[in-house]
Specification:
Layout: H1 4-14, H2 17-25, H3 38-49, H4 64-72, H5 75-91, E1 102-106, H6 116-121, H7 129-137, H8 145-156, E2 160-168, H9 169-182, E3 190-194, H10 203-216, E4 220-226, H11 229-232, E5 241-243
Parallel strand pairs: 1-2, 1-4, 2-3, 4-5
The structure holds magnesium ion.
Length: 252
C-alpha cells in the first residue's frame, strides 16, 4: 500500500491546477486575513457585490486600505464605466412610449451623488447616522459624472426619471434637492425621500412601497439603478436592474 505522502503526491499530479489552488488556499483565500492580503479583500469585495456577504457593519479592518485603493486609484471608475456600458446597451434597445409613463429609478447616495469623501474621512467605519446627516446637510456631495451622463441620455430619450432615496425628507429634503441641482441632476419627474411613515423601515421595504405607488399611478419601470442590493430587490424593481459598485457600506 502506498504511503500517505505518496498518495498526496499522486493526488496532486492528477488534480487540475485551479483545484490545486483551492486546496492550498483553504479559508484564507476567501476572507481577509492580513493587511497586505489583497487577494482576500478582492474576494470579500466580490462577495459584497454579488450580495453573498450581507448585514456587514463596516469594512473589515484588514481591507480598509484595499477599499480606499479600489475607490480612489481607478478600478472603481473602470467598474462603474463597465456597468454604464451595460446600461447603455440596454437603453439602446428600448424606447419611451408617447404616453409619458416609461420610467427609470435612480438611487441618490453613491449612485447620483458620491459620499466617498465622507467615508474616506471616517476610514470606512460603521454607519454613524448623525455624522452622515451633518455631511449630507452640507449639500456638497460631488455628482458622479458617468451616472449624470446616463441620466441626461434617458431624459433626452423621453423617459421619466424618479430619484428614490432613503434619506429623511423632513431634515434632508431641501439640501438634497439643492445638491442634486448643483451637480446637474435636474429636470427629473419626482424626488421621493423617506417620510415619517417609513422611519425605521428597511430601505428595501420603503423603496418597494414607493415603486408600488408609481406602478399604481401607471408608470412602467423600465430600469432601476442603485449601489445597494436593497435598491434593486423587493417589489416592482423594474424590467432591468443595474448594480453600481460600492464596497464602502451595506444598507439592508
Ligand atoms: Mg445608495
Amino acid at each position: 500500500m502506498a504511503s500517505l505522502a505518496l498518495q498526496l503526491v499522486l493526488f496532486a499530479l492528477v488534480l487540475p491546477p485551479h483545484l490545486l489552488v483551492s486546496v492550498s488556499c483553504a479559508k484564507s483565500c476567501f476572507w481577509p486575513s492580513s493587511a497586505h492580503d489583497d487577494g482576500g479583500c478582492l474576494s470579500w469585495r466580490v462577495m459584497v457585490e454579488a450580495n453573498n456577504a450581507r448585514g456587514w457593519r463596516t469594512v473589515p479592518a484588514p481591507c480598509v486600505g484595499y477599499v480606499k485603493g479600489y475607490m480612489t486609484r481607478g478600478q472603481y471608475g473602470r467598474d462603474l464605466g463597465s456597468v454604464m456600458e451595460q446600461v447603455s446597451a440596454y437603453v439602446d434597445q428600448i424606447a419611451a412610449a408617447d404616453d409619458g409613463l416609461d420610467a427609470w429609478i435612480f438611487d441618490i447616495d453613491d449612485t447620483c451623488l458620491s459620499n466617498l469623501l465622507y467615508y474616506q474621512a471616517k476610514r470606512f467605519g460603521a454607519y454613524d447616522p448623525l455624522a452622515f446627516k451633518n455631511w449630507a446637510s452640507q449639500g456638497a456631495c460631488p455628482g458622479i459624472p458617468a451616472v449624470l451622463q446616463l441620466f441626461m441620455t434617458l431624459q433626452d430619450k423621453g423617459f421619466k426619471l424618479f430619484l428614490l432615496s432613503g434619506r429623511d425628507e423632513e431634515t434632508l429634503g431641501s439640501c438634497t434637492s439643492e445638491n442634486l441641482e448643483s451637480e446637474g441632476f435636474s429636470g427629473y419627474e419626482r424626488l421621493l425621500m423617506r417620510t415619517p411613515d417609513y422611519r425605521g423601515q428597511s430601505s428595501s421595504v420603503f423603496k418597494s412601497a414607493m415603486r408600488k405607488q408609481l406602478v399604481d399611478e401607471g408608470y412602467r419601470i423600465r430600469g432601476n439603478v442603485g449601489d445597494q442590493w436593497s435598491d434593486l430587490q423587493g417589489d416592482n424593481v423594474g424590467d432591468r436592474v443595474f448594480k453600481i459598485p460600492n464596497p464602502m457600506y451595506f444598507v439592508p
